[in-house]
Amino acid sequence: SNRTFTMVKPDATGKGYTGAILDQMIKGGFAIKAMKWTRLTPEQAGEFYAIHKERPFYGELVEFMSSGPIVAAILEKENAVADFRKLIGATNPAQAEEGTIRKNFASSVGENAVHGSDSDENAIIEGSFFFSGLERF
Ligand code: ATP
Predict the structure, then answer these.
(1) Taking the model in full, what pTM does it have?
(2) Is the CB of 28 within 6 Å of ligand 1?
(3) Pairing between β-strand 114-116 and β-strand 3-8 as defined by DSSP bridges
(4) d(CA 64, CA 76)
(5) Alpha-helical regions (H) of 18-119
(6) ipTM above 0.90, yes or no
(7) Residues 90, 81: Cα–Cα separation, whole Å
């Protein structure tokens, strides 16, 4: 598919990195198809990350993701999901390649600046969590 879903996470919005991160996405060839600045309640963050419910870091993840504003966006590019994960780099910024968004802006494995969908199916599910059919033009 040619679409993926991303969030700029609360660590990055809080440090004022939003503009630079979006700039790197656009320069990386991704077109913004829908975007919103918002904040998740702990309930909403828990629902978004329900797939990780059994992971030991789930509570920490939900608390972090509801701790401040996030920017949610649907992005378009050929081979979007795989190319975007390449652009953001490894989950743990210490292992992320030089020049990736997480290498540039993330501080730890938990507070890692951005989210990127891991499959076409999840890109649709996650995009639909934030945007109505009307908004996903
Ligand atoms: P994302 O789905 O956000 O793009 P990912 O696919 O790289 O991240 P996952 O393993 O799916 O990573 O974990 C989802 C999110 O949970 C991570 O992005 C990170 O914010 C958090 N996380 C992952 N591992 C840990 C950990 N060991 N401790 C704390 N938080 C973690």
Answers:
(1) 0.96
(2) no
(3) antiparallel
(4) 27
(5) 18-27, 42-48, 58-65, 80-88, 101-105
(6) yes
(7) 14
- pLDDT value, residue 136: 73
Q: What fold does the segment set 3-130 form as a domain?
A: Alpha-Beta Plaits (3.30.70)
Contacting residues for 9 by C-beta, under 8 A, at least 6 apart: 64, 65, 70, 111, 112, 113, 114, 115
* Residue in 8, 61, 95 to alter for ligand 1 test, most ligand atoms within 8 A of Cβ: 61
The protein residue with its alpha carbon nearest to ligand 1, atom 1, reads 115
What is the CA(133)–ligand 1 centre distance, in A? 27
> What letter represents residue 109's amino acid?
V
Rounded CA gap, 20 and 27, in Å? 10
Instruction: Tell whether 9 is in a known binding site.
Output: yes
pLDDT above 80 (res 137): no
CA torsion sign for 93, 11, 13, 73 is positive
SS3 content of the chain, % helix, strand, coil (to 5): 45, 20, 40
